[in-house]
Design a protein that fits this description.
62% of the residues lie in helices and 0% in strands. It is mainly α.
Length: 181
Amino acid sequence: MIERTQARKILENLTKTESLLRHSRTVELVMESYAKKLGENEEEWAIAGMLHDADYEKFPEEHPKIIVSTLNELGENKIAYSISCHYTKWNNPYTNLLDKGLLACDELTGFIVACSLIRPEKIEGLSAKSVLKKLKDKSFAAKVERDEIYKGIELLGVELNEHIDFIISVLHANKQELNLG
């Protein structure tokens, strides 16, 4: 299996902006924590989270084909496939928890980070109730596709408030590294 240091080199070769690097790291941390909670392979889930948008900055029109191809060449077919599923409009079937988990965590993690960044106290004290209120406000983080969030939650089979609280707890535990403190 690919090692995280090798995955990070791939990410850093393709991604330069601080915001996208932070998004990759937040999804990596959330995916790793979910894998632990569900008894899944933590490294595999973390790497899927880390690399899911790796080619987006450099090759937006080809996303995620470049990173999927790279991972397939390395023999990381399961991770590659899950990355090819992290947007429902690509119409790939969700075959396992990794595919579903990445979809459920990607967009919502980014949204929760956005919620944190507008608050003076950042992630501190952020609640599911606050996040849900912002989800209803279509003008806030307007590019976030709410349908993707709800479909991911449905596929993973988790309750919305609990899912939000879980992601907040992971981000809170890593708030210093993520500049959310």
